[in-house]
Design goal:
By secondary structure, the protein is α/β, with parallel strands linked by helices. It is about 40% helix and about 20% strand. It comes from Rhodococcus pyridinivorans.
Length: about 300
């Protein structure tokens, strides 16, 4: 290690906090140190690298061009160091620690809360920081270390995955729909219907558009929204049809029907590439050991 590196390393934590918060006071609160300490460390870092890293923006601060480049190249180092220290501490006390756990918008009302409640009874000293988002966001948070563990549908190909189950996608129709009594549908039967769909960057939207293309038509998207429960509510109001997983709780006014040409989606328990702490490993084992809770065939029966 060069003398410059040895001098700079302790200053990067203050730099990273200020870069993320965009405000010196909030960075100080995050680090639980005086504001003057954060300012002093940033000035010392700027002196060490020989360039200005921040500039004022209203009451806050923003990174300069040089600051952005430095943050891009060093932010993972701070996360790695933080993770290493946390892991070492938790190895001394495997019944305590923090697990940052994420799960998708299509799960939550029943399966995930029941699993977490059981885990808490088994490991009451382990604290859980929970995030619910769609798959692309969850995968990115696992990659950059903001999450330790996440259930993702479908899981990313570049991260370690334990397959839990297959999630079945069904056509959701208003109970008054002309095809609501069918045991199975072909998408061509719905070529003239209005669809209610999630945004284009959602995997489930891409599945819908691909299947409709195979069926020979482009779906007319009358409503576009990210919240799945709202999509179901709009379907129940008779405003269109939707392709979604079966709801974990009953939704009055909706009929769900299997549809030809739509593949099941893999439900995966995804981890980062770092060695997990004992608390993370314990939650991973608990979820993987209860994979039957995610069985799409059981939920859709």
């Amino acid at each position: 290690m060069t003398p410059e590196t040895a001098m700079v390393a302790p200053l990067l934590v203050a730099f990273d906090a200020a870069a993320r918060e965009g405000h010196i006071t909030r960075a100080a609160d995050l680090l639980d140190v005086p504001q003057s300490s954060v300012s002093r460390r940033i000035r010392a870092l700027e002196k060490a690298v020989g360039v200005a890293l921040f500039q004022q923006s209203g009451r806050g601060v923003v990174l300069t061009t040089a600051g952005r480049e430095l943050h891009e190249r060093t932010r993972h180092l701070v996360r790695e160091l933080d993770g290493a220290i946390t892991t070492v501490r938790e190895h001394a006390d495997p019944d305590h620690g923090v697990v940052r756990f994420g799960f998708p918008l299509t799960l939550g009302p029943v399966s995930i809360p029941s699993l977490l409640a059981e885990f808490h009874r088994l490991a009451p000293g382990v604290r859980l920081h929970l995030v619910q988002a769609h798959g692309k966001e969850l995968a990115e948070m696992v990659r950059d270390g903001r999450l330790d563990l996440a259930v993702i549908i479908p899981p990313p190909e570049d991260l370690p995955v334990t397959v839990l189950a297959q999630q079945r996608l069904l056509l959701h129709l208003p109970s008054s729909h002309r095809l609501a009594g069918r045991a199975r549908l072909d998408l061509r039967d719905l070529a003239d219907d209005h669809f209610i769909a999630s945004p284009p960057d959602y995997h489930i939207r891409r599945e819908l558009e691909s299947a409709c293309d195979e069926a020979g038509f482009e779906p007319y998207i009358a409503f576009e929204i990210s919240e799945f429960e709202t999509i179901r509510a709009l379907v129940a109001q008779g405003l269109g049809v939707a392709l979604l997983p079966h709801s974990e709780t009953p939704v009055p006014g909706i009929v769900t029907v299997p549809v030809a040409g739509i593949a099941n989606r893999t439900i995966g328990l995804t981890t980062g590439t770092r060695t997990p702490s004992p608390a993370v490993a314990r939650l991973h084992a608990h979820i993987a050991g209860h994979a039957d809770r995610f069985d799409g065939r059981r939920l859709d029966s």
